[in-house]
Design brief:
The chain has 335 residues and is of the alpha+beta class. It contains eleven helices and eight strands.
């Protein structure tokens, strides 16, 4: 005997809509998790590709700087952004950018005077020597900055401004900043920021040398005393002090813009027979005393005594001997 099934109640429109909605959602769920997996895999692959690209760039940059020693414009700008070292002195990192700045500047100055270097073996030797000079200079400047910090010395922006203006007005010629920067760019290959960086390094080194060189201070004081006592006879003072000082006489009129550490400019401010006070040489490597013999509106004839700084150079030499200077690139051989 068959049991009669109860007659189903017709679905309402709302139930039909809900049923249809559930069917659509059920079909969507079939693609949900595979799609999430694909997105996850895509993110991982993107990260891996980016990481490989970064590693490749780092390796390429390392090879360019430390293996092939690129000195070109692009790598120079990279080192200005990334503070990578070229050496280490007494625990302080020597900036690759400082080394390249000095090297490129010295090379451009040389090529301006003697012509472009070619690809001969002799030209390569010249470049190697310029690299050696630049690297040693960068080491010295870095050590000076380290010592300056330890001694509580600093170079203020105002001091850099003053030095910049003094250089701009060298020889008594009033140049605009734009005209001066063009001269700097043409002759040294430096822009304004680079030239100010060079001034900062030079000023700090000069401050440190003056601070630590008690021998030079004592000799300079002795020179002052002797000049006062003998009426400014520089030749006699130089003969008495021997190798402690350097004596020089132009013997004739020279241009007041002569490149001589600032002596011509100082001589132009004196009267014949007058001896200057002690002053620091332009490159900060010692003290000068100048005696004017004669002058015209544009030329001077003078005698001078120089008291060189030696303590700083001796300390740097000792660091090399003790293995506290580590160079990360191989450049021209030292003697």
């Amino acid at each position: 005997m068959k049991i009669k099934q109860p007659k189903q109640k017709p679905k309402t429109e709302r139930e039909k809509v809900e049923e249809r909605r559930e069917e659509v959602l059920a079909k969507g769920r079939k693609f949900k998790y595979p799609l999430q997996y694909t997105k996850h895999k895509l993110v991982i692959n993107t990260i891996l590709v980016a990481a490989v690209a970064v590693v490749a760039m780092v390796v390429a940059g390392w090879l360019a700087l430390y293996q092939f020693q690129s000195t070109g414009e692009m790598m120079y700008r990279v080192t200005q952004v990334l503070p990578v070292p070229v050496a280490e002195v007494d625990g302080a990192k020597v900036r690759y950018s400082d080394y390249l700045m000095i090297y490129r500047s010295n090379l451009q100055t040389s090529e301006q005077q003697s012509g472009q270097l070619g690809n001969t073996e002799d030209d390569d030797l010249v470049r190697a020597e310029y690299k050696r000079t630049a690297l040693e200079a960068a080491v010295e400047y870095t050590y000076a900055m380290k010592l300056g910090k330890e001694l509580g010395l600093s170079v203020a922006e105002e001091e850099i401004d003053q030095a910049f203006d003094e250089h701009r007005k060298v020889g008594g010629v009033e140049r605009s900043e734009e005209a001066f920067l063009k001269i700097v760019q043409d002759n040294f290959g430096m822009n304004r920021r680079e030239y100010r960086r060079m001034l900062e390094l030079t000023l700090m080194k000069a401050k440190v040398e003056q601070e630590i060189d008690e021998t030079a201070q004592a000799v300079a004081a002795e020179v002052e005393t002797m000049l006062n006592e003998n009426g400014g006879d520089m030749a006699a003072v130089a003969e008495s002090l021997g190798e402690q000082v350097e004596y020089e006489a132009t013997g004739q009129l020279v241009d007041n813009m002569n490149v001589d550490g600032g002596r011509s400019n100082k001589a132009m401010t004196l009267e014949p027979g007058q001896v200057s006070e002690r002053f620091l040489s332009n490159n900060g490597d010692g003290y000068y005393f100048v005696k004017l013999v004669e002058k015209t509106e544009t030329q001077v004839n003078y005698e001078s005594i120089k008291v060189k700084f030696t303590t700083f150079a001796e300390r740097v030499a000792q660091l090399y001997e003790e293995g506290k200077v580590k160079e990360l690139i191989e450049v021209g051989l030292t003697e």
